[in-house]
User: Fold this.
Amino acid sequence: MALRRGGNKMKRFFTILKIEGKLTLRGVESILFGVCMPVGIMILICLIAGNKPAYEGADYTFLQGSFGSLITVGICATSFMGLPITLADYRDKKILKHFFVTPISPLMLLLIQVVLSILLSMVSSIAIVLVAVFAFGYYMQGSIVFFCMAYLLVMISMLSLGMVIASICRSVKLANVVSSVVYFPMLFLSGATIPYEIFPKPLQNVSNVLPLTQGIKLLKGFSLGMPVNGLMTSIVIMFAVAVIGVTISVVTFRWE
Amino acid sequence: MNACIEVNQVSKKFGSKQVLEDISFTVETGEVFGLLGHNGAGKSTAIDCMLGLKKMENGEVKLLGENPVKTRKSLFEQIGVQLQASSFQTNIKVYEICEEIAALYKETTDYNELLTEFKLIDLKRQAVEKLSGGEKQKLAVVLALIPKPKVLFLDELTTGLDVVARRQVWQTLKALKKNKMTILLTSHYMDEVEELCDRICILKGGKIVVMGRIDEIIKMSPYESLEEAYLWHLGEEVTK
Assistant:
């Protein structure tokens, strides 16, 4: 009986996941910003400088240096645009409130949106990997396993920041504004698109404050096979961001 | 007759503002009960309290004999709700929202039957946004009926609809009434209330002004129509 009920619950979860997933795909922005744009930026960078050394005398190529950062562009789009705006919209439309008057907890709908964000980020990353490997001959110098673990950590920590935006912004309008204010600086100043190393020193200082910069340092370090010791600060910061983000969003989240 | 909705001395404050004060009433099984009053009189707050969406300072609510907060999961298998001014996901299609709502309940009516009954079946694959106001509200009723509810809560179901659409929605509610569905609704239209409700309760400033059958409410006033009696009970000037 317990098993059957569990099965039912999974079936319900997947039915809703399927429908909400269709809606995500139907809203063209998610694919455009989450998948097409990251892949486009990578192709552009590869065509300009892909197989040249990252800098004079470097023992890795520009693409190898940028791979860890390019893979976060998709995470940015889902964490700072997709997730918070969708949730703010659902709150405005009383869709979250309506779940309270059904037998299912509205938490399930939140969970489904988070799962969709994760899936979309992963699709984006896989597209980037495929293009990098097959079109531009990329290979990773560092450990793929460590890189994947770091990737998950960065993703969770960025999604938790997205949840904070969703919690704090009381309307879709505000969520839109805050999303843009967070998304664009993260995209351009954290090194996700333009390499951090070529920033002038004052800009690097600004960049260092952004949580994504630390995430990118981590991914870059692992992709280039740097020792874990040197990356400890970034790892700790990423964990801290995730814990703080989840705590703030749980405490401040409003269903209506 | 047994009580389907019991509201007992419910009080609710927002900050220092008293929005509901000592509200008590009972809705019997099979009855259509109207909650009336101006905007801000406390109708939606009363519904929120009944559904356990808002905590109340005082009082007690029982739906189908149970506490809506404590037994939420089992209780809401049997209750259909349409919230005021709620809307749907962007880009969602009619059959998709039906499927999503159906996935929330253990036992459901086939939504295709409901769509047919409400003459929405031809719009099944349409985007919900493209529906007219009346069609959207009929869809809201369909969704509220998917769990085979014993009680329906409808908050301002027909506000903003044109005369034709309003009457279409009435037809569907009358059919439900015939089948002994218990309904609690709020409305601003007295013609609608007269058409549908067995008993009404008029709220003003969070307090019950008067409650009873429609003919009783009219008899208590010096007037002959419900609209005039309504205004008279609320202490408003009745202009001809």
